[in-house]
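re: that chain from earlier
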Amino acid sequence: MKSKVYFISVKNSDNLQVVNAKLKLLLDKSKVLAFIRKESRVAIKLHFGEEGNTGFVRPEHLRVICDEISANGGSALLSDANTLYRGRRLNSKDHLKIAYEHGFTKEITGADVVIPDDTNKENVIAVEINQRFIKSAKLARIFVDTDALIAVSHFKGHILTGFGGALKNIGMGCATREGKLAQHCDVAPVVHSDRCIGCGECEIICPVAAIHLEKKKSVVDGSKCIGCASCLAVCPTMAMFIDFAAGDKVQDKMVEYSMAVLKDKKDKSGFINFAVKINKECDCWGAENPRIAPDVGILASNDPVSIDKASFDLVNKACNKDIFRSVHPDQNGIKQLSYAQEIGLGILDYELIEL
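^ sequence. v structure.
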C-alpha cells in the first residue's frame, strides 16, 4: 500500500501571504496533524538557521502550523539541538539568541523556543535500538518526552548526504553533540598542533581524562575518548579536528538515529517539507549558498521516507535531472531512503495528492 504525500505548488513569485494560504490549505486537506489530541505537548523540530544564512523555513510559516496544533487542542514548542561545529548554535544561550534574531519569537510563531543544553545530563536520553551501526542513540530528551513530534524541514542539498529533508532533520537534528559525533565520525578527535595554543580548556572539560598537555600541546588518548565532543565545543582556535566518515555510512547512521527519535512516536508524528529556496548546502552554512533549483512547493505526510522521496522526485523533475547528484557527485542521497525503508521507517512507494 502506498503512503500518501500531499503537495501544493509554490512559485518563486509567491509572497508570504500566498504561501501561508497555501500552507493552511495543505494542512486542512491533508489532515497530517489530525493525530494531535487535546492537551498534547507537541515538539516542532526545525532549523533556526546559522548566522548569515536565510535558507531556513520562515518563522511566519510556523505560525500557521502552531495555530493548527492549537486548533486540535495541543500546545506547540519549537526546538532544535545544539551543533557539533563552532558557531552561533554551539551552545543553548547563543542558539536561542540567533533563533530570536531570525524571528522565531512567540509573538510571531505563537510558540516558545526551547533549546536543551546537552551538557546538563537531565536533558539527554539514551534510546536503545541495537542496529547495524548505532546500538544506543544519544538524543535531546525533549524530542522523546513530548507527546508528539512535527518535523518542519527545509529541503535542500547536503555535502555528506546528498540532500537533507525530514530524515536528516530528525536524525542528525535531534541528536546531542555526542550523537552527532557518532554519526559523523568513527574515531576520536585529533589535534592540529599548529593551531593548538596549549590553553588546556579541552583537558579541563574532558569528562574521562582522555586529553592531556604534552610540550604545551593537547594530546588525545583515543582509547579513553567517549566521543562526547565537548573538546570541540571549547577549543578557542578550532585545533580539535574530526575525520568525517564516508557519505554512505553517515547516511546509515543518520537513519538509525531517525529510528531512535521515532521509536515511541508511532501515529504521533507528522512531516512537512518546504521545497523552496532550494540551496546547494545545509542551513548550517554561515552564509548564503547558491540556489540549485526553482521553488517547487510544500509537502505533508505522516511517512518520513515517502515525503523525502516525493520531495526528491519533484525537485529533480523541475530541474530535468538529478540536481543533488549533480552538485554532490560523491553522494547518493537515495541511500538514506532505501535504508530507512529497510529498517521500517516508511516506504518509498507513494501516492502524490496534488492540491
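The longest strand covers residues 3-9.
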